[in-house]
Amino acid sequence: MFARDLTNDFERPIRRLQGSLQEESRREELATRANVFLSVVTLFLGSLFFNLKAVLLLAQSGRIARYALFGAWGSFFVALASIVISLFVRKFEAPFDPVNVIEGMGDGDVDDGAFFEARMLDMAVTTNTNMSINDRIASWLQLAGATILMGFSCAVLFLIAAALNPVDLGTQE
Fold this sequence. Notes:
Shape: rod-shaped
Strand content: under 5%
Distance between the termini: 89 Å
Helix content: over 70%
Order of helices and strands: HHHHH
Number of strands: 0
Number of helices: 5
Structural class: mainly alpha
């Protein structure tokens, strides 16, 4: 019976610690996703701006090509902006500040139970705060993912429209 009570006493703190560790690993996964998205957007924007003169000549092949090109550019710029915003949302809280904990203890005797409860409360608050920060980052990256997909679709439509209505790239200077 004693072992069962001891187990129940430690289940709640262990769950809070697991939640905190999960949010930390989620934060790392979101940072990795942001870096991948940034690479993809940079690649696509670079490919669309690499030979700007030829791309603009291809855009003259018709309305669909022109609108698709502007849609691709707009989508990739929105994706780039949302990725940059997600990278700057980096305020992440530590479970507790050791200096404040030591100063808060004072000179008197500290009750182990009260100290333990205060740390668990700190852990719960920071886990909830970090979860909301991660949710905000995830929402910006979700927007980036959707606009990357839309930009890629517009780029493919641009290439198809330009191929269906060819423009002589050599005659126009």
